[in-house]
Design goal:
With 468 residues, the protein is of the alpha+beta class. It has three domains: 80 residues, SET domain (Beta-clip-like, Beta Complex); 150 residues, no CATH class; 180 residues, Serine Threonine Protein Phosphatase 5, Tetratricopeptide repeat (Alpha Horseshoe). The protein starts with a strand and ends with a helix.
Length: 468
Amino acid sequence: MSQVCANKLPFMVKRDEVLGRCIVATRDIQPGEVITESLPLIVGPKMASPPLCLGCHKKLALAELRYDCSKCFWPLCGQACENLPLHQAECEIFAKAGYKPTVKNDNTKQTVYCSIAPLRALLLKQNSPEEFKLLLDFQSHLEEHEKTQIYQVLKKSLVPFFTQVLKLDTNEREILTICSIFDTNCFEVRDTQRLVNIRGLYPLISFLSHNCKHNTKHCFINDNFRLVLTASTSIKEGELITTTYTQTLWGTLSRRSHLKMAKHFDCLCERCTDPTEFGTYLSAVNCNVCGDGSKVTSCDPLNSEANWHCEKCGFVITGGDMVWGNEVLQKELTYLDKKNPESLEEFLERYAEVLHPRNSYSLQVKYALCQIYGNLDGFKLEELSLKLIDRKIELCKELLEIAEVLEPGQSWFRGLLLYDLFEALVTKDERRGKEIEEETKNYLMEAAEIFNSEPDMRDNIQQKLKNL
């Protein structure tokens, strides 16, 4: 490894032969400690996005919220957003070209937004050359991206849009490189109120290495989308500081496939190499020969073609059949009605013999149910029967057991589950006229500690603590 910089922060950037640039702790870092904060180099809509304001980036889900810019006709929240500096630069380009976007008044994802983030990058070229140079220093993986269908579409649509319609001084290589840099390095930017869902490019933070059992969390603060990076577990001096580009409840096949396709690397982390995933058996299925709950696990988790075998009787399932089975289940999950708990509960019942309670697909459905019960209209806590409140409590506790292993410490996953569990237990106690137990209060206190660096959640939880 060759050292790059320090800068009084609790980490340094190093260059590793395998990982490339990565971030390493220069001292012990405690759980909950803010490691660093960073403003985005660029933020913008995803390639396909529901209608959103190009000023503040909030969703425009309802037609009555829409205000079309008086100069470029892109939809905004209102006149105030028309005058924001971020929008003014691109507004001038669109107005000068006489281009008027066609944006539907619905909540569907629309590809018309695919030009915005790359255009903002190209505007740096003339307005902030140093930042544009910094942008181009990010890794792109363009050669891999160019082989995909979406980049063939970009060549035929986005490139001529920039060069012929907007008449920008650019070329195919530059445009595709920028798009590839975004796809490789961007963070998904969301606010706690779920009004914003865009992507952002953050210098330095993008050097964080991926790990399927990461040791940090991050949140986005204020209208400038400042990223705050916080340690979720203890990080020892010399250890890698890591984030994740996957979902905790995905199995190994799904995680590694996503990373290979989206980020162009093969994950070799400890979780990926362990057939049991730290004893959770998230990827495993029940053995239909033993019939006693014995687990079928991969002989080589790093090889998707490797056979899977029962740990008890040796029954074998080919790697190809496991990949196919995962694809079938994933497709079924995609089409399940996420607002209908009955369809989700029916999924769990239908696959109970094949998928053990902690299988990845079972847990994903249980997490969806956990979010429905107590949060969705028609299933608010005050509307739930005691039976369904007990079901939510059961789900929260089961998912917390998984979080303790796969996303421990002060992680968002644990924090949200603790908060949900607290609210369900309080509702149950109030229904029965009982005093709130100390254990229930402790769930809220721990959630408060986890969300201490995130203003919206912190203030809400602190108010509940005062009420207690």
